[in-house]
């Protein structure tokens, strides 16, 4: 088969463009850790309890299947509400076994907050009126601090929690 000179040029150009495109996407997705949009669902910020995920009894950690968990959280100035334990005390630490898949679902009652589990890929912006979700596999054992990484007011630095992977 004989290829015309210009056919070769355009074929090479096309292939090169494809390779460059894939490299850029790969760089953004795997090296920079860019996620798809995680806050497409909306909610009434003045009545978050009306949503099933944010009813007081549904907050915090729930095992949904073997090795699969969900964590529902309500953020507000300046607290993460992970529900209460058996003694009605606020939960501050979420404990899951290593290798488990955890779906974090969070919303805000007031202003924009952040929800970052430092040392993992979990890092979301939490906007009032929106529901943010992110599912992560907890690959490494350890204690990971949950921090608010959006400045939300005077008590911004007091917003924290902990995820313990055992
Ligand atoms: Cu909430 Cu900063």
UniProtKB/TrEMBL annotation:
CDD domains given in the database record: ba3_CcO_II_C (cd13913)
Transmembrane domains' residue ranges: 9-31
Keyword Cell membrane part of the UniProt annotation: no
Protein name: Cytochrome aa3 subunit 2
Catalytic activity as recorded in UniProt: 4 Fe(II)-[cytochrome c] + O2 + 8 H(+)(in) = 4 Fe(III)-[cytochrome c] + 2 H2O + 4 H(+)(out)
Function: Subunits I and II form the functional core of the enzyme complex. Electrons originating in cytochrome c are transferred via heme a and Cu(A) to the binuclear center formed by heme a3 and Cu(B).
Cytochrome oxidase subunit II copper A binding domain location: 17-166
Annotated localization: Cell envelope
UniProt keyword list: Copper, Membrane, Metal-binding, Transmembrane, Transmembrane helix
Alphabetized InterPro entries for the sequence: Ba3_CcO_II_C, CcO_II-like_C, Copper_CuA, Cupredoxin, NosZ/Cyto_c_oxidase_sub2
């Amino acid at each position: 088969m004989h290829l015309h000179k210009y056919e070769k040029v355009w074929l090479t150009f096309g292939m090169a463009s494809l390779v460059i495109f894939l490299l850029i996407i790969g760089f953004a997705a795997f090296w920079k850790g860019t996620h798809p949009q995680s806050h497409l669902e909306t909610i009434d910020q003045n009545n978050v309890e009306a949503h099933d995920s944010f009813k007081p009894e549904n907050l915090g950690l729930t095992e949904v299947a073997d090795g699969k968990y969900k964590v529902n959280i309500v953020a507000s100035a300046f607290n993460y509400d992970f529900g209460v334990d058996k003694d009605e005390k606020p939960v501050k630490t979420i404990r899951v076994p290593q290798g488990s898949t955890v779906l974090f679902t969070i919303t805000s009652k007031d202003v924009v907050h952040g929800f970052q589990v430092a040392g993992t890929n979990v890092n979301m912006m939490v906007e009032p009126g929106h529901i943010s979700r992110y599912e992560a596999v907890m690959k490494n054992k350890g204690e990971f601090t949950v921090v608010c990484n959006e400045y939300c007011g005077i008590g911004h630095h007091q917003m924290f929690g902990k995820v313990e992977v055992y």
